[in-house]
């Protein structure tokens, strides 16, 4: 369940996060001719976004699922 939630979370929020970061850091991205800066920023944002998705699942979703699973039994 956690993998599905994180995949959906990253799939929905990754384009938004990348567009915000690349628009804020546009001078850094434009100054780099090789594209390595863009790759590094993209990977950093992807790992951070995945970490946030895992923390949301652990703190909010998993206790809610456990509570409802106990109510069904």
Fold and architecture overview:
Helices cover about 90% and strands about 0% of the residues. It is mainly α and about 70 residues long. Helix 1 runs antiparallel to helix 3 (about 35-70). The mean pLDDT is about 90.
Task: Please give a quick description of this structure.
The protein is mainly α. 90% of the residues lie in helices and 0% in strands.
Give structural attributes.
73 residues; mainly alpha; 3 helices; 0% strand
In terms of per-residue confidence, which ranges show pLDDT below 50 for 5 or more consecutive residues? none
Instruction: Please give the alpha-carbon distance between the first and last residues.
Output: 19 Å
Tally of contiguous helical segments: 3
* Secondary structure: helix percent: over 70%
Q: Which whole number gives the mean pLDDT?
A: 89
Main sheet makeup:
none
> What percentage of amino acids are in beta strands?
under 5%
The oligomerization state is single chain
Q: Count the beta strands.
A: 0
């Amino acid at each position: 369940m956690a993998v599905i939630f994180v995949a959906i979370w990253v799939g929905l929020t990754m384009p938004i996060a990348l567009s915000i970061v690349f628009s804020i850091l546009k001078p850094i991205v434009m100054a780099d001719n090789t594209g390595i800066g863009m790759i590094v920023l993209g990977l950093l944002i992807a790992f951070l976004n995945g970490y946030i998705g895992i923390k949301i699942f652990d703190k909010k979703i998993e206790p809610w699922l456990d509570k409802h699973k106990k109510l069904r039994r």
